[in-house]
Design goal:
single chain, 148 residues, mainly beta, 9-stranded antiparallel sheet, 9 strands, globular
């Protein structure tokens, strides 16, 4: 009998469109946290019946560790759009933070199963060098997860 290991990896792509029309793109690998793995295991059994449905942005800069259950300093959170093509081993969760939403010096992001700020289960977390989102800028955050 052949043994197959299952791996889950994630990458965040941030696309900032500045008020002047210039575009800045960042890409960074993230970590799946312990609560995220627990959530996935529970989903295989159908308990609880919930989905990862939100992306949060923050201003914390502490190095991500597996034991974290929240962003260090959450700034905002909103609903995410899920996408998956059958037959592939990837899925994405993405959200666009329009002008006036998430304005500030953003340095962290994560995926959650609840759109209410500072609650729910966190799947993953990533930190990156500061992205300064002005009041009239638009930031799109797309998490891509790959199962292998």
């Amino acid at each position: 009998m052949e043994n197959h290991d299952l791996h889950l990896t994630g990458t965040l792509t941030l696309t900032l469109q500045k008020e002047d029309g210039s575009v800045e793109v960042r890409k960074k690998d993230n970590i799946i946290v312990n609560s995220g793995f627990d959530f996935i295991c529970a989903q295989v059994a159908g308990v609880p019946a919930a989905v990862m449905q939100a992306i949060a942005l923050g201003t914390g800069s502490n190095t991500p560790v597996a034991s974290q259950t929240a962003l260090t300093t959450e700034l905002c959170r909103q609903a995410a759009t899920y996408a998956h093509t059958n037959g592939t081993q990837t899925f994405t969760l993405s959200s666009t933070f329009n002008p006036g939403v998430g304005t500030g010096a953003i340095t962290e992001a994560g995926v959650f199963n609840n759109t209410a700020a500072s609650s729910g289960t966190m799947l993953d977390r990533v930190t990156y060098s500061v992205i300064n989102k002005g009041a009239n800028d638009t930031l799109t955050a797309q998490f891509q997860f790959t199962l292998s």
